Amino acid sequence: MTASEINTRPPLDGVRIVDFTWIVAGPTCTRLLGDLGAEVIRVENEQTLDSIRFGRPHPSGFDPPDSSAMFNWLDRSKRSITVNARHPDGLDLIKRLIRVSDVVVENYSSRILENWGLSFEEQRAENPEIIYVSLSGFGHSGPQRDYSTWGPTAQALSGLTAMSGLPEAPEPAGWGYSYLDHMAGFTAAAAITAALRHRRDTGQGQWIDLSQVETGMALTAPATLDYTVNGRRYRETGNPPGNRSVWPQAAPHNTYPTAGDDNWIMITCTSDAEWETFCNASDHPHWRTDNRFATLPARLRHQDELDEQIGSWTAGQDGRALMQRLQSADVPAGVVQNGVDLVVRDPQMKSRDWTVIRDHPVIGEHLTDGLQIRFSRTPAHRDLPGPPLGEANQYVFSDLLGLSDEHIAELQVNGAMG
Q1: Strand, coil or helix: what is 132?
Q2: Which of 66, 102, 181, 307 is catalytic?
């Protein structure tokens, strides 16, 4: 590919987004769009700051609201302005900004923007081509539209929590750190790109009403279909599957200890052919002739004994060397990595430049993850740290909206730019 075939502008360059998001789901959406080149203007209020601005960790000696590592991760590639939407002049500033923007994104409860005077119809009155994205827990219709959710509660309602957990602990368990928040954020980002394409073709904006609970339900489709067609429940035994596979059935299919403190490797064999390859690679060919393990049905009946024997073999071995050994024999295996592994030890991530160094005006240089998407013709993207509170006030109010310095000073005094 020649240099002339490379577009040096990011894919979403020229798209302006008014960002009312907070916590995780909404910021995940606008972070990805910002990475892809959109100008994301985060609207904040000093009196009711996003709690993530106070989220740990903070570098030693620094205090929020600008030093939170979590905020800088979730809200990179964005700008920040401070506006009080409940002040008439503040609401007027927001409406002016909507007039010169393409997208409005929020993930508040269903009636918040309506109460501010920023319903979809009121936004359209300012900008007929605006794309408005509501990312609430239940959506803006139905009897539960006013219910509130948190990432884990939305996950529970979606059906995902019932599908997780360990066999020895029959109570359901979550999927770790706010998984459904990220699922909803990525779904919203995809919806926005589709709406931008529709507007390019028709000149029409639209309202995207997205339910966080429903984004999780998309992952329960096989279990739902199995029940509606076959009458089978996902957990027929009454216990969750843990690390084992319900369908397709596989054995071994578990994590096994390796050398060191809390180090593990995941090994999977979905067929007798993979099992035979694994036995040869592990120097345990006799496992193939053991009646308990010779066939997949037999291994499924004796998974406890199988896991015990494999765990005894993996314990004490270097996990990365073992992974390479098994992968070289075409056995699916992967070490269970933590944050340190991803940043320091993983050669694959290093080769793909997964981490980047950013320079933040408050906390200085820091290593963090970059954009995970690789474009062959539009590789350029934004790579900015999270914004200090209100850093773009002058740019937005003066350069974009054309307010005089005297007017801006007046708005600061009367509380409109709170």
Answers
A1: strand
A2: 181
